[in-house]
Amino acid sequence: MALPRINESSWYELQIPSTKQDVTFRPFLVKEQKILLIASESQDKKQIIQAMMDTITSCIREPIKIDELASFDIDYLFTKIRSKSVGETSNIIVNCTQCSHGNEASVNVSDAAIVGDIKPSTIELTSDISIEMRYPTYRKMMSNSSILSDDADQTKVMFEILSTCIEAVVSSEERISLADESKEEIDTFIESLTTEQFTKITEFVQNMPKLTYSTQVTCTECGHVNDLTLSGLEDFF
Known about the structure:
Layout: E1 12-15, E2 22-25, H1 30-42, H2 45-59, H3 71-85, E3 89-95, E4 102-108, E5 113-115, E6 121-124, E7 129-133, H4 138-142, H5 145-148, H6 154-165, E8 166-171, E9 175-177, H7 183-191, H8 195-206, E10 210-218, E11 225-231, H9 232-236
Antiparallel strand pairs: 1-2, 3-4, 5-10, 6-7, 7-8, 8-9, 10-11
């Protein structure tokens, strides 16, 4: 006699933030949780991201282009799936900014939301040259060891992320897709920008949407009200 299969009928709905695609998903099961735990124990960012993406692909019913989704899409999808899998609340310790006392706080991860406008962006560099921007994807980040390295210089990381965010360079005569250009050509192009032009691009990355959860935690020792904000992969995984 075959063993019964259970937990196959619980399905939920959500919308992918950047694409507005409506999808249905199930909670992850022990087979996915095992992979996530192994990835977490490895403390390897690439392995963690891959485990998240594999879990999302397994748990969402509809076909999605996981490699093309923005990094904040992945954070959002995984957090929503996780909230239905292991519980919507998680207890963390928040150190008071006044007296350093550790306070236990309950975080409702299901309340995490994407903060920031999601919209196409074109940046004008000169009167006849502009660049089309795209949000970074985890697949692109995983292909660049400098971005995910714990020891990488922050300036280098920013530079590398920028190179993945430029979709195309557009002039009055042509549109040049950076997918057709070598990394050396892309680096040379970025290095040729003025400080003002470069700042415009960095602002795109710094202001891109993020999965965010905000609350306040009152210290049980001194009564100080602490603002708590969680955002991004490291806070929600």
